[in-house]
Each structure stands twice: as structure tokens, then as C-alpha cells.
Amino acid sequence: MTLASREVPVKHLNCHYLKNIGYGAEDITILKDGLAFLSTGLKYPGMPSFSDDPGKIFILDLLHPKPTPVELQIKGELDLSSFNPHGISVYTDETDDSVYLFVVNHPQHKSQVEIFRFVEEDTLVHLKTITHPLLHSVNDIVAVGVESFYATNDHSSPSHALHYLTIILGLPWCDVVYYSPGEVRMAANGFMSSNGINISPDKRYIYVSDIIDHDIDVFERQGEQLVYIKSVAVGSLCDNIEVDHRTGDIWLGCHPNAMKLSKYDPEDPPGSEVIQVKNIHSEQPVVSQEYADNGHVIMASSVAAPYERKLLIGSVFHKALCCDLK
Hints:
Blueprint lengths: L13 E4 L7 E6 L4 E6 L15 E6 L8 E2 L1 E3 L9 E9 L4 E8 L6 E8 L3 E8 L7 E6 L5 E5 L6 H9 L5 E7 L2 E9 L2 E6 L5 E6 L4 E8 L2 E9 L3 E7 L6 E6 L2 H5 L9 E7 L7 E8 L7 E7 L2 E6 L5 E4 L2
Parallel strand pairs: 6-10
Antiparallel strand pairs: 1-25, 2-3, 3-4, 4-5, 7-8, 8-9, 9-10, 11-12, 12-13, 13-14, 15-16, 16-17, 17-18, 19-20, 20-21, 21-22, 23-24, 24-25
């Protein structure tokens, strides 16, 4: 399950570190106009953390000649002292072009979803906090409306001990939940550990990373229910999913050896891997490794977000890279 004996040869791109990002950028998502949102400073049970500061959200303009992450100011009633952001998703309301940022938040290691509106150049206005018994171990989220989304639970129950027992027994008890103000229900189940989630450019399909099964599951939206179509093996423990809005290609930030992640040793650090999946709906999807590192440049990659000929690579607790795609 953890690919504990796997070592990946280094395969680098022309990259540089992003300024101001030193404690992870666990999730990154990019608007069509090149504005990237970064979720930073995650503190997650069992993972290293090198800062006691609360988490932050940064923004980065990829159309700028020298893109530099800038911290977004958060206004509203949210308790920023316990802000612990995980997966994120952006929704643009086409009626007025308003931009909404959905953030999975773990204050005191609880699970809740925050909805913000992005205003001006550097401000998020907090609109709403969402909690629900079905949203008990949320990892990632994909927004499908101003107040509606699909979310993954990476644990089968809020109890860590019970969850790890189900993994040892091989019980695929994790799920994806659909939330709207009028309805909350399980939309899909049967995952060992549902992690990253995202949506196709035409909004017809949902992609879910089952990190322990080392595959990407493809679902078709029928109403709000998700109907399983297929699984694509990726050969790594892939975390977040980003989708190229022009081509529909899938980009994955992955953990090549999860044992090194869970048994963190700075002398033998957890590596990083970026995997691309082309033509995922065809009979023969093309799965390719686009970047790999042994942990000495970037540890524990969790997301790879493409824009034009750039690629942003984020990590659970380390740094973030901006790379040139060939």
C-alpha cells in the first residue's frame, strides 16, 4: 500500500522556489486568467510541521513577469488563530463573475468547509462555515455552485484507530459527499482513502484519487449522484488533482513512497512525483511521469497545477516550485 521499497530516479524540470512559501502549499488551484490560490501551513496528524503559525491563503499572478505569492487578507468572523487550511476549490459565478474560494479547514483537527468571496486584489471575505456529520474527515473539495460542492472523506470514520483498522483489513469504506444547502448525501463510496477530487472542463465528470489504491477513479455526474465509470492506475500515492482547463489533462502531485512520509527522516526525506494523465476517457489513457525528486529539492509533493507552459508544484509541509514545462 505504501510502496515502501520504491525509490524514484530524479527527473527534474527547470524550476525555482516560490518566495514566501516555507511550510507547505498542500493545495493549489488556478483560475483561467492565471490567478493561483495556494493553501499553506497545514498541520495534519502524523505529518511533520515546521511552524506553529496558523495557516494562510496566498495568491499568485502567473501572468506577472516575476510571479510572487502574496498573502490574502481574510475579513469576517472566522477564527484565524486556528485556521488550518487543507484542500481548496474555486467557483466562478458566471452571472456576475464573482469568485468564491472553498477551503477545507481543520481547527483543532475538526473538519469543516469555509466559503469566501474573493474581492479586490488581496482580500477574502468569509461568508459561511459548513459542518455536517457526513463531512467528518474532509480532505479535498470541488465546488459546483455558489454554496454546493463534492468533498472527499479520507478516513472511514472520525476515529483514527478504526480507520487504520479498516485499511489493514482492506475495507474500502471511505466516500465522497455531495453538499448543498438543501441536501447532503453520500454521492459515491467504495474508496480505501478518497483524497484529491476535481471536475472535467465540461462539468460532466468527477475525478477522485484513491490514494491507497494508487489509482484515479472516474465518475459521471447523474443529477448529484456519481456513477462509476472506470479506474486508471497511476503507480504512486497521488494526492490532489488539477485539470488543465484547455486540454482536460489530469495533473497529480504524488508521494512515491508513503513510508518515508509517515516515518519522516530528514536524512532520507520523502520524495516527490508529478504524474500527468492524458486522454483519461479513452480506452488507453496515457500516464506519464513529468517530474520526480528524492526529497532534496522538494519533499512530499501534494499538488501539480499547470497553466500555459508553467507548472506549480506544492507540498504538504515543505516548499513550492514554479517550473517551466517543456
